[in-house]
Amino acid sequence: MDAACSTQLIDGDGVFNVSGVDHFIKEVKLDECGLSYAVVSIMGPQSSGKSTLLNHLFGTNFREMDAFRGRSQTTKGIWIARCAGIEPCTVVMDLEGTDGRERGEDDTAFEKQSALFALAVSDIVLINMWCHDIGREQAANKPLLKTVFQVMMRLFSPRKTTLMFVIRDKTRTPLENLEPVLREDIQKIWDSVPKPQAHKETPLSDFFNVEVVALSSYEEKEEQFKEQVYNLRQRFFQSVAPGGLAGDRRGVVPANAFAFSAKQMWQVIKDNKDLDLPAHKVMVATVRCEEIANEKFSSFIANENWRELEEAVQSGPVSGFGRKLSSILQASLSKYDTEATYFEESVRSSKRQQLQEKLLQLVQPTFQDVLGHLRAGALENFKNAFEKALDAGEGFSSSAKSCAQSCISKFDKGCEEAVIEQAKWDTSKTREKLERDIEAHISSVRTAKLAELTTLYESKLNVALSGPVEALLDGANDETWPAIRKLLRREGELAVYGLSNALSGFEMDEETRSKMLADLENYARGIVETKAKEEAGRAMMRMKDRFATIFSHDSDSMPRVWTGKEDIRAITKMARSASLKLLSVMAVIRLDDELDNIEKTLTLALFNSTGNNATSKSISTIDSLASSTWEKVAPEKTLITPVQCKSLWRQFKNETEYTVTQAISAQEANRRNNNWLPPPWAILALVVLGFNEFMTLLRNPLWLLVLFVGYLVSKALWVQLNISGEFQNGALPGLLSLSTKFIPTVMNLLKKLAEEGQAPPTNSNQSMNSTAQSEVTTNGESSSSSSSGSSPAKNVPIDTSA
Fold first, then answer.
1. Residue 554 and which of 26, 126, 496, 646 are 20 to 30 A apart at CA?
2. Could you please report the per-residue DSSP string of 547-577?
3. Over the Cα atoms of the chain, what is R_g?
4. How does pLDDT run across 610-635, given as a tens digit for each residue?
5. What is the CATH number of the domain that holds 125?
């Protein structure tokens, strides 16, 4: 026996071939496959090429019809064979053709039984049908499928089977157009089948996977047919794997029980007497009315008026669309009624209803396009009208409501003109979509407007708070935080009031409105907190600036000149106290008017703990700074922790120590320069030791004249050279400066004396005036030199502090 091992499973009289099936199972070793096998069967009209298809598709050797001997029954009963070269093991069953003249019109029980058997046993059922028979009740096996669906649910538990409709001798009609018709017919059959209570709501997809393929003519396009069959054959490989062509196989039996299971199923099917097919008269009416309906459907598609109307809709809405299309549809249905008048009424009415449904299904996309144009136009009109209303200053909610009502009213009027009489389609879904689109646009515009308002008032708060808060913190004192709280309260209330008035036109719910206003208040508070954090990060710089300002300037904001009379210790203490005040102000955020003892703690721990006695008294206070939180202050309000304050103060003292040292040095230098006379004991010694010389001068007045002249010359040189001013910068710089100025100054004095000696004698008043003018000039030059010489000394503490 060949590899296919073709065997008759059930003969033409309905007798199950038990021995033949057993022999087949042994030959193909089916009992070794377990659950890894698939069963494929084919059904369809007699002489439709079922066996030919199986032989080419699966490599079997079923008997084929000899075309030269005429059309006759080739396959009797049900034959079984193994598919060659397909894994896993696949068994194919070739069923006797339906509608055969050999069995006659009334003897269709075997056809029904074999078809039901194939559906019950197989994982995949091929429905072989001619392309030109699609839509015909008998040719497409619709009544047979209807009966099979009903009986199968009653006899067997649900098992998902793949129904593959093989369309033979495919014409130029695309498969995409043929497949929807088949699927719709199958679904209608399923919906019309009376179902037992257990399967009242069971969908078709729980029982069947429907597949549709198309093949070219074997006789006219043999090569193309073979190529298509080869491609189809690839789908049967690994058909039982997940996602394969076979169904879910929940009810599959092991391969070694296949023969017993098949025999029992066949017995159950044979014992059922309820299976029946439509009468011949009904079949003829069905086929003929189907042909007429198909003809009118094709005529409608080719109708020039319809094609022009369809083309016009593509570019925009068409006035009177519903009236024009209703007229074209009614003309096609009237022609069908005229030609199908004499056929059975039930069939005629059924096919007319099907024709009308097909026509409506054809024109429905165009109708939806018209609704789409109406909806898009209405939405665009609404957007334009809404924008103009807002630009004109109308309230948001009132503008939205009036514009929406106007546009929807125009849309409803357009829908009334587009409705088709035969369909009475509901346009409410498109209307609802338009309403959703309008609402979405209103929502988006509302969101944008609210965002603009929020941004506007937030920017105003930024301008109103950032600068003033920074200035207040820069001049930190006891009134800083009360002033900030007052500023925040005032500006926050102004912003909230302005936003509240702006929101009045939006008709918002109270909860949303309150939330927006609360968010604005929180934003204002956040600005202050953020600015406080920024300033706290610059605390060290602010402390040094304040120290330098107070230490280097007096109460009149004039730069200090360290003359030796200033109390540097008191000034330093005052400057550091002010800096410590600034640190205590910046340590925490005080927007809730809560009292704290931070300044006291810092003063005791850092400012009053410098002495030995104070150190022993303030140990507990210093220890209070060894913490990351302040007493009675929430952590989220802390800007500078106690530990950080201690570190900042230590760094601050180190960096300002140099300024204090420079001031002390300048003061000492000033004192040294002012004490140029010798000590009192030296003056007393000079008096005692120079007594004889003093008496000599008294006895000889000429020496007094010489000494007086020497005094005048020395005084003039002292003033001209500004000796006291030169030595304020130190001994060495003073000597160097005097060495360069001494000779020019002496020469200048001699020159003036010479000029005075050569001048003609004048009256005494003129001489006195000249002498006075000379003294004034000398004093002016001396004062200028003194001022010039002393300015570096005055600038010492200023430069040092800077």
1. 646
2. HHHHHHB-TTSPBP---S-S-HHHHHHHHHH
3. 58
4. 544 444 444 554 467 788 888 888 88
5. 3.40.50.300
More confident residue, 76 or 328: 328
Q: Flag whether 678 is marked binding.
A: no
Strands 78-82 and 7-10: antiparallel
Q: Is 48 marked as binding a ligand? A: yes
The two three-digit tokens of residue 644, written as one number: 């950080």
Residue 44 marked as a ligand binder: yes
- Looking at the domain assignment, is residue 399 inside a domain? no
Paired tokens of 639: 């800007």
Q: What distance in Å separates the CA atoms of residue 266 and residue 15, rounded to the nearest whole number?
A: 9
Q: Which residues pair with 90 in a beta bridge?
A: 38
Query: What is the pLDDT averaged over residues 412-429?
Result: 83
Contact indicator for 651, 540 with CB cutoff of 8 Å = yes
Q: Is 45 annotated as a binding residue?
A: yes
Cα gap 119→142, rounded to integer Å:
14
Residue 47 marked ligand-binding: yes
Distance CA 129, CA 77 (A): 19
> What predicted TM-score, i.e. pTM, was given to this entire model?
0.43
Q: How far is CA 710 from the centre of its chain?
A: 98
- The answer to whether the annotation marks 46 as part of a ligand binding site is yes
CA distance 421 to 333: 13
Does the residue 355 lie in any domain? yes
Domain with 172 in it: 6-276
50 is in an annotated binding site: yes
Domain final residue pick, 238, 255, 276:
276
Question: Contact, 546 vs 579, CB < 8 A?
Answer: yes
